[in-house]
# Entry
Amino acid sequence: MARSLTDWMDQFLQKRVQRRWASLAERAPQMDLDALRSLRSRARTMRRHLDRVLHQAEHRLALPVIGSNAIRKPLGTDWTWRPDLWRGPIPVPGFSSVPGRAVVCDGATVFHDCRRSELTVRQIRNTREADLAPFGFRMDVFRFDGSFLSLVLDLPPGAAEGLKLRHLIRLDVIVEMEKPLEIFARLNIKHGPNVEQIVRELPLGDEDVMVEFDLAYTKVNERRIERLWVDLIFEGPEMNQIILRDVTLSRRPRAEL
# Structure
């Protein structure tokens, strides 16, 4: 009840203020200069507050909604997923001198074998109109004396449920980099004591890239699939900034011939 009364009072006062300023605007052409100068000062003060509200509202309302799982889905898709790193804020948004094995958040881990780490990682807020993911992930690599740098993403149990050899698993990545480098995606499928691996190179030249993993060419035992994970492997990352604006996975059954 108190909330309703407060809302009613706010609306009542806002309407009175609007009517007041509408009346002043109509009278402004006939006002004497001293009164007009005072009115201008009051109007500028109010405009500063209004501009701050508009600036924040336009900025925040233009951003992808935190927690959004809007994903572009190919026809026939029966499972889609965006890792938490791109969906919502993580407990520690970033750190420097990343160790050889660093858990960025639940289900996302950075690996490298540098003797001296000059790697910084950070979750960033996506702000572009084209972005569907609320957050991105940035890696700043300076001197790099190791042989590999990878980001490992653990897929949820739903990825393995009902997975068959007739499925295609698709990986979509939106990536920005200061200078070109090779990026490989490796799908790992644990079935019983074995792990099947499928490696694809992400095509260079485009910001929005896609690769597909065809399970028909593997020796996976459908009845013993336990879990899946993806390695994103960055070749020659020294002196580069890499931004993964979005990473999504989906699967669909191959069309029957």
About this structure: The mean pLDDT is 87. The two ends are 65 Å apart (CA to CA).
